[in-house]
Specification:
Length: 275
Amino acid sequence: MRKTLLALLFVVLASPSSGFAGTKEEIIRLQSDVLQLQEQIRLLQKSTDDRGSILQSLLEQLNDQIAKSNLVMENLTQGLSAQKADTSAVVAQLREEIQKLNVKLDDTNNRIAGLYQKVEESQLKTSSLRNVPSAGGTGGVEPDQVYSQAYNDYLLGNYDLAIAGFQDFLTNFPNSEYADNAAHYIGVCYFEQGRYEQAAQAFDQVINLYPKADKTPVAYFKMAAAYQNLHKNDEAIETWKKLYTLFPDSQEAKLAAQELEKLGVALPKAGARRR
């Protein structure tokens, strides 16, 4: 473009028909115009170069941004693929766990069915024992059979029948080796029914009639619990103290110590002579 403008100027200066030829002032003015024109051309060229540099820089920045965007997109794609794989693994694991639970459920159902069958057999056995004719109070029935009948009622939650059965057992077999157990379970049945007054009396009878039996420490502890349910805290504390003193090595004594500590009561001296 610069060369084209210079050529046009040369043609104007050389033309014989020009009205500017022959005067020095006009030549100087033309030279000045040419210089201004050259400066404008230079500025235009510089502006074009600057704009080209800016465009080049913008293009490079755009390319960099596109590269970064592609990298982010690639990472997202990989992340989604990994997440999909993890989800598939979790679903597979859940399916496996569900299958295991189904197997366990089937096994549990089979066990429950077996237990129901045993319960029905026990009920039939208990019913047959109740229907055994009695003569002279026992009718030839063995003590363990009578005790088992009452104990089955206890296990089945038939507490009234169990109480009646254990009381009949104590009446007919007062010297049996199961006598302390029968007296103890009478108190337990009352306790399970929430009849805490009768329970405390029954446990007290166990303590008085069988002071050295295996069930006696349990009777002390359960009697104290019955008193506590009756809001008779003084009686409960005194009973736990006796238990801790008379049977210091029993598991019930340790439980009694825990109850006393909860209430902030000092423990008595253990190991006193048993009555």
